[in-house]
């Protein structure tokens, strides 16, 4: 029985995103993609939500807000990490303020890769997350997902690299 | 014994009927917007899901008012199907709404407070119309009982057409249809988030949803009562009103709270009052 997966209500938190993922995510609600045909609603309120969609690379300032939004949601709940920023920090990885993925702050159930992901990929992620939601309702253990295989971790910036080599020589 | 069975049947049928109406409403709205839309049974899926969520409440007062909200709406259904006094129906219905307002006021979220205040303004806007409706029923049938509406020879629609139109606008407010959806909304309105139900979560939100289904069924039952002599015609009347309300909902943007009160206290109020004067003369 799919008791909880027929009506995923989604709350969306922009965690320092460049808005690319957000615009693509809002496109999912448009008549072209219409996620409401799966019963999904975009709610502005974590207390009504089953699914938390996070976009952007989390930083020191908004990690607290992200954790707060997550903790306000009644369980069973799932977290969907949209875009490559949420898995590694994306183009911002290595910046002084970036924590490097939202899984450093809250447990993530599904990663959707892309910069930004296409709406089809997002809907696919939502459908995958629904299976996890149903498992959580049953009280089953759910696996921690692997980060997207194509996630690119850039090398350390030259200044840091030079400093590290200097430290190694000393 | 027969009355007992009728009451039980009505208490089961009202939320089912109201939920179906809500599902058809969402489907029709989606089609009008060029979308596929959710399944017709979606409101039931929502309620089942909410019942399986963790019970989170801000305080106990809120929970008890949510229960009262549902209980008084069930009393409205019982009073209607047993053909009791329409004034009692009116008071039970008003208290059900007041219980929701108190639930919204019992938490400290500003969105919930604003939603509750707007709900009070909505009550201020539509309650006079409901009172005038009951007065009109009294003038047409010479008593306040819902049962006599069925036995009276002349359909109410013929004796009070203007009250009917005014009542339709009151129903639009009750069902949170545009342009009157100021207290809470099913569309994503930014300035209010979710309004009056924002702090009500999980199974308690399911109770609010079930109450909304019951209310929807009760309101359309009252619309059908305008032609209670032949319930087929009454049902057609209710269906026509339902479709008209969805059309209006999709054609209008929401307007401000004070516009709503000004409008309701002028156009529908004058329509209903002139109908009452015509009945009285």
What does this structure look like?
The complex is a heterodimer of chains A (about 170) and B (about 280). With about 170 residues, chain A is of the alpha/beta class. Chain A is built from five helices and five strands; from the N terminus they run βαββαβαβαα. The N and C termini of chain A lie far apart (about 65 Å). Chain B has one domain (about 1-145, about 150-275). Chain B has eleven helices and no strands. In chain B, α5 (about 110-140) runs parallel beside α11 (about 255-280) and α8 packs antiparallel against α11. The longest helix of chain B has about 30 residues, at about 110-140. The interface between A and B is medium-sized, with 21 and 30 residues.
Properties at a glance:
heterodimer; A: 170 residues; alpha/beta; Rossmann fold; five-stranded parallel beta sheet; 5 helices; B: mainly alpha; 11 helices; 74% helix
Present the secondary structure layout.
The complex is a heterodimer of chains A (170) and B (281).
Chain A: E1 9-14, H1 20-27, E2 41-42, E3 51-55, H2 63-72, E4 78-82, H3 85-88, E5 110-112, H4 119-138, H5 158-169
Parallel strand pairs in A: 1-2, 1-3, 3-4, 4-5
Chain B: H1 2-32, H2 42-51, H3 60-81, H4 86-105, H5 110-141, H6 146-151, H7 156-159, H8 161-174, H9 202-224, H10 231-251, H11 257-280
Helix pairs in contact in B: 1-3, 1-9, 1-10, 2-9, 3-4, 3-9, 4-5, 5-8, 5-11, 8-11, 9-10
């Amino acid at each position: 029985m799919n008791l909880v997966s027929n009506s995923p209500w989604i709350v969306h938190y922009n965690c320092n995103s460049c808005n690319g993922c957000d615009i693509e995510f809002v496109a999912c609600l448009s008549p072209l993609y219409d996620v409401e045909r799966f019963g999904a609603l975009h709610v502005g309120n974590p207390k009504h939500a089953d699914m938390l969609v996070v976009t952007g690379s989390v930083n020191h300032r908004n990690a607290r807000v992200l954790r707060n939004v997550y903790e306000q949601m009644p369980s069973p709940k799932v977290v969907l990490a949209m875009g490559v920023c949420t898995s590694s920090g994306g183009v911002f990885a290595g910046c002084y303020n970036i924590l490097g993925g939202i899984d450093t702050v809250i447990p993530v159930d599904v990663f959707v890769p892309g910069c930004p992901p296409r709406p089809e990929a997002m809907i696919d992620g939502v459908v995958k997350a629904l299976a996890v939601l149903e498992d959580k309702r049953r009280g089953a253990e759910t696996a921690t997902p692997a980060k997207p295989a194509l996630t690119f971790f850039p090398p350390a910036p030259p200044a840091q690299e030079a400093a590290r080599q200097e430290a190694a020589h000393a | 014994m027969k009355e007992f069975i009728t009451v039980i049947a009505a208490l089961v049928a009202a939320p089912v009927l109201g939920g179906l109406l809500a599902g058809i409403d969402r489907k029709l709205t989606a089609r009008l917007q060029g979308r596929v839309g959710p399944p017709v049974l979606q409101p039931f899926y929502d309620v089942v899901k909410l019942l399986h969520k963790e019970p989170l409440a801000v305080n106990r007062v809120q929970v008890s008012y949510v229960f009262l909200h549902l209980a008084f709406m069930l009393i409205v259904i019982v009073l209607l199907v047993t053909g009791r006094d329409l004034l009692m129906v009116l008071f039970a219905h008003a208290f059900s709404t007041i219980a929701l307002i108190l639930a919204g006021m019992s938490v400290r979220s500003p969105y919930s407070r604003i939603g509750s205040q707007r709900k009070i303004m909505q009550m201020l806007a539509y309650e006079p119309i409901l009172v005038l409706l009951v007065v009109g029923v009294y003038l047409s049938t010479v008593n306040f009982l819902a049962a006599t509406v069925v036995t009276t020879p002349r359909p109410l629609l013929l004796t009070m057409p203007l009250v009917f139109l005014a009542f339709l606008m009151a129903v639009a407010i009750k069902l949170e249809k545009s342009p009157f959806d100021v207290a809470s909304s099913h569309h994503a309105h930014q300035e209010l988030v979710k309004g009056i139900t924002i702090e009500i979560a999980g199974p308690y939100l399911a109770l609010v949803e079930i109450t909304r289904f019951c209310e929807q069924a009760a309101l359309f039952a009252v619309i059908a009562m305008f032609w209670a002599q032949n319930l087929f015609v009454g049902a057609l009347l209710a269906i026509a009103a339902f479709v008209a309300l969805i059309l209006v909902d999709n054609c209008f943007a929401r307007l401000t709270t004070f516009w709503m009160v000004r409008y309701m206290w002028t156009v529908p109020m004058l329509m209903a009052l002139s109908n009452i004067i015509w009945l009285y003369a």
